[in-house]
Amino acid sequence: MSELRGLLAEVAARVADYRESVAEAPVFPDDTAGVREKLGALPETPAPPADVVRRLADAVEPALVASTGPRYFGFVTGGALDAATAADMLATGWDQPAFNMATSPAAAIVEEVAGEWLKDLLGLPPTASFGFVTGGQGANTVGLAAARHHVLAQAGWDVERRGLPGAPPLRVIAGEERHATIDRSLRLLGLGTDAVEPVRANAQGAIDVADLERVLDGPAIVCLQAGNVNSGAFDDFAAAIRIAHEHGAWVHVDGAFGLWAAASPAFRPLMAGVERADSWAVDGHKWLNVPYDSGYAFCAHPESHRAAMSMTAAYLTGQGDGGMRAPGDFVPESSRRARGFATWAAIGELGRTGIAEMVDRCCALARRFAERLEAIEGVTVVNDVVLNQVLVSFGAETDRVVEAVQRSGECWMGATTWHGQRLMRISLSNWTTTAADVDRGVAAVQAAWAAVASKG
Ligand SMILES: *Cc1c(COP(=O)(O)O)cnc(C)c1O
């Protein structure tokens, strides 16, 4: 066996060992203190690749978080599917810069095929353009950049050429419970966070459509949300988009995880009308369970999407692309990872029915978690569990219970503040999680709650 072959076989075996044992590993590492020391000082001389990689893996494996495993309920975190993981390993080995047909026809064609599949699965318009980005943050930035172009172009201003100084004012209207990445995207786009005119949220964290109607007055960018990052709530898309469009506004939907509910026949009716928005942001690495980094920006106005993102340079003309789309024209990067391979493989592994089943199963497990926790005295679930998110109160002891659960290594979930209350936040987003994992999670929470309560 050649040295390279041996190295890659060893790494593949190591990845398999990790993934096959991750379900029983402590979910959070107890001791990360030794990692720096094991990584050592800056090497002065070359070393055999296998030694380098072995040292790296030995050093960091004890510090890994088992977030790809079945009892990681923190943030909104998927665990990569097997085919998607392997395809991403191929993407690394093939090392393709997925910029255009000249740099990698394979990457460009796979992105085109997978992008069409994604639109079909999510019920988005077949004519929408798409870009494969780093995640929800990247997708929100692309969607809002297209929006910025479009709304200002309608006001007679070419923002790509002239920038923002002297531009007509651009209103941004967003729910008060928007995800923090919306604000960062607005910062990056030069609009600034003060540009946001917040709209009230209802008791479940969805946008208050009456308040939106009150705020709207002509062209603007309206940010809606599919899946509140705390409660999982959806905005009322049919009503909100109709009102926004009556005012000539652009509607961007942040659906980082929640838009995947549109891939389930059971949930799609809850999101009726979402397909009439102007741009959408979706993650691959959350609910589709593709490895990091993976997200998708879709746009109902391909010319605005392209105008906001495309790159032109003398060396890019006449590359014989046969009219094919250049993936690099729809994202803010040029040399970039070939993200289509892992997405294509994830969709291939699950198929349309498998994706719907994964969404339905995660949501059913969220309801199971909520029901079992509510049966425990002194424990309250504070949100309507409409999707995969559960918010739990232990009164004044919430933070201490969350910390005790985290220390247990049995499972991991974080804390949040929602509507003025400290809460445990549980997310079910991983394809490997079973009812037995939920029950182990419930037992860990119950034990932590009992221990905290007994100490008073
Ligand atoms: C996670 C999330 C984002 C950001 O996505 P990243 O993939 O972390 O960049 C944006 N919006 C919502 C609602 C999210 O849950």
From TrEMBL:
GO BP annotations listed: amino acid metabolic process; antibiotic biosynthetic process; carboxylic acid metabolic process
Highest rank taxon of the organism: Bacteria
Presence of keyword Lyase: yes
Classification via Pfam families: Pyridoxal_deC (PF00282)
Example of a GO MF term: pyridoxal phosphate binding
Keywords: Aminotransferase, Antibiotic biosynthesis, Decarboxylase, Lyase, Pyridoxal phosphate, Transferase
PANTHER family registered for this protein in UniProt: GROUP II PYRIDOXAL-5-PHOSPHATE DECARBOXYLASE (PTHR11999), MIP05841P (PTHR11999:SF70)
Protein's recorded name: Aspartate aminotransferase family protein
